[in-house]
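Morning, I've got a small favour to ask if you have a moment. Here's the protein in full, and shout if anything looks odd to you:
***
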Amino acid sequence: MSYDGKAMNVRPATPADADAGSRVLQRSITELCKRDHGDDAAVIAAWTANKTPEHWHVWLARSDTSIFVAECDGSIVGVGMVDGTRVILLNYVAPEARYSGVSTALLHAMEKVSCQRGIVVCTLESTKTAGSFYIARGYVPTDGGGSTIFVKHLPPGPAP
């Protein structure tokens, strides 16, 4: 995998990633999700309230989640998290890495770990900003139209 012509690596997150990972989450929400928050400071504050290094450590301590980071040249450019039941909880990319395959690579890592757990369906709640991204990757709105809840049936057999 590559990002901006450089090798990209998706790996499990560590405690040392807390500061950089939290910054990616906050910047992605603030800068890329304007369609969802409309630059409303209160909405952004509420949305990013738990995207902190302190919460990062809480998430890592959970036995029911897997957190991944995408990095390039030692810099974190994306963050993803999936729980052990089938729900994709996070998939955010640094603004400068948008449209470079980072979110897709993270999604594949989360689907793979879900398959390894025996999960056959993944679900997620998408922003308006990312809805078309998930549709292009096989996710379907649960109501067939304007829902923000998406579902994808994972292929049977070995992890993708």
User: Anything to note?
Assistant: The mean pLDDT is 89. The helical segments are 18-32, 34-37, 41-48, 53-61, 102-116, 131-136. The first strand starts at residue 2 and ends at 3.
